[in-house]
């Protein structure tokens, strides 16, 4: 029997009608509905921003929340996005660790600095310390390469991750950022095993849809079986680098947010399966 790939729905895929805004990231959709939508679509992994777990724990006991995950067949949990870690902000790491322990998180998504000119080399020791904090939980810490951060190239990301040298640390590759950062899939395929640790697929148009890169990033992504970026080739490159899931999807788009949550999540699951099937057939 062929094993069903573990599909992972990153936070914005199921957060409902909330546009990412650093001033207010909280979903307006009850976490129970989000879990139900992902469970029915066949997702076994879910990601959440930290505030959504804080809000859920204000409404539900931790034991009840964890029972919801278990009852929904959610086996893999991610928290995002860890910021300030490279400057030695112990509080943000402490808060993230507390939430990760509470829900048994498997993965913490970290991002680089907003100052795009900040050098990567000094971040490696700090990343190593962060990885060590989560190692006892058996949790990975993954850095998402992003066009809007100082870690916007594969070389910079490798500098931090390989400089830290931690077994539970690695890079997260997002289709949109891979495209907009100009990262070649062949470069990804040639990575040493253990560097590629997480993925978020989406559909990406070849040319920018709007001139503002933040607006494009949060309003104009598509399902991964559409767009100009070859997600099937991306999946094959990931496998060549030693990665084989969980296969994450992140749809951050105005059109996606406008749909009912169950419909939006089901569309994403169907698109992910189509891409994975295509990656095997090509």
From TrEMBL:
Residues 35-273 form the Xylose isomerase-like TIM barrel domain. GO terms for molecular function: isomerase activity. The keyword Isomerase applies. The keyword Transmembrane does not apply. It holds the Pfam family AP_endonuc_2. SUPFAM superfamilies: Xylose isomerase-like. Keywords: Isomerase. This is Sugar phosphate isomerase/epimerase.
């Amino acid at each position: 029997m062929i094993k069903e790939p573990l599909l992972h729905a990153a936070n914005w895929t199921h957060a409902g009608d909330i546009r990412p805004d650093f001033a207010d990231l909280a979903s307006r959709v009850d976490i129970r509905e989000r879990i139900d939508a992902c469970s029915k679509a066949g997702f076994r992994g879910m990601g959440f921003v930290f505030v959504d777990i804080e809000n859920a724990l204000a409404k539900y006991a931790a034991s009840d929340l964890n029972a919801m995950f278990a009852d929904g067949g959610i086996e893999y949990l991610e928290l995002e996005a860890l910021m300030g870690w490279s400057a030695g902000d112990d509080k943000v790491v402490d808060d993230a660790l507390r939430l990760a322990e509470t829900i048994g998180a498997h993965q913490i998504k970290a991002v680089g600095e907003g100052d795009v000119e900040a050098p990567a080399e000094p971040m490696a020791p700090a990343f190593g310390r962060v990885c060590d904090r989560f190692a006892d939980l058996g949790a990975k810490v993954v850095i998402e390469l992003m066009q809007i951060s100082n870690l916007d190239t594969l070389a910079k990301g490798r500098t931090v991750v390989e400089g830290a040298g931690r077994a539970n640390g690695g890079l997260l590759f997002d289709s949109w950022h891979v495209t907009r950062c100009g990262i070649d899939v062949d470069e990804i395929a040639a990575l040493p095993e253990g560097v590629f640790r997480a993925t978020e697929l989406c559909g990406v148009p070849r040319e920018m849809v709007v001139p503002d890169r933040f607006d494009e990033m949060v309003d104009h992504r598509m399902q991964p079986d559409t767009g100009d970026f070859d997600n099937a080739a991306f999946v094959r490159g990931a496998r060549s680098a030693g990665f084989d899931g969980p296969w994450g999807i992140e749809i951050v788009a105005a059109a996606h947010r406008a749909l009912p949550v169950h419909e939006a999540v089901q569309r994403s699951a169907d698109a992910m399966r189509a891409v994975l099937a295509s990656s095997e057939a090509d």
